[in-house]
Design a protein that fits this description.
Layout lengths: L2 E9 L2 E8 L8 E9 L9 H11 L3 H8 L3 E3 L5 E3 L2 H5 L11 H13 L4 E3 L4 H8 L8 E8 L1
Antiparallel strand pairs: 1-2, 2-3, 3-7, 4-5, 6-7
Helix pairs in contact: 1-2
């Protein structure tokens, strides 16, 4: 399965990104994959000392490490920093867990499609979402829908 990025839309404090599968299903609908990122400041517990420890561990300057990691990090047990992966977020290591309820993600996805990008909302099927997201381990943070795309 190949995904092609389609768009990013800011809706409130959520950045909604979506990609489309390059092939349509048997009914002519296009599978879409949505991801959601809160743009609210995250309280992740990272201090300047964490950045310094990580810089020393990697043999880089603090500015280089900050540039490499970006803002999506948490304070690691060893004193440095680590990236906020889906697993780290799920464990609460990245600060307050920001999982949107499933139906809230569906509503945001619908709004994102209404903003343009050549796809029309055709509804939300929780069973389809579960079948696509379950194997990837990201069912709490992403959304799969089928839409009518040109």
């Amino acid at each position: 399965m190949s995904l092609r990025p389609v768009g990013v839309t800011q809706i409130g404090d959520q950045r909604v990104s979506f990609s489309r599968v390059t092939s349509k299903d048997e009914n002519g609908l296009t599978p879409l994959f949505f991801s959601f990122v809160s743009t609210k400041p995250r309280r992740n517990g990272v201090t300047e000392a964490n950045w310094q420890a990580e810089a020393a561990r990697q043999g880089l300057s603090v500015d280089e490490v900050k540039s490499n990691f970006g803002d999506n990090v948490y304070a690691g047990k060893w004193g440095g920093v680590a990236p906020c992966t889906v697993g780290a977020i799920r464990e609460g290591l990245c600060g307050e867990r920001n999982f949107l309820p499933l139906m809230k993600r569906a509503e945001l996805a619908k709004q994102a499609l209404q903003a343009g990008n050549g796809c029309r909302w055709t509804g939300f099927d929780p069973a389809y979402h579960a079948s696509m997201s379950g194997p990837l381990g990201a069912g709490e943070t992403t959304l799969w829908v089928k839409a009518d795309c040109h």
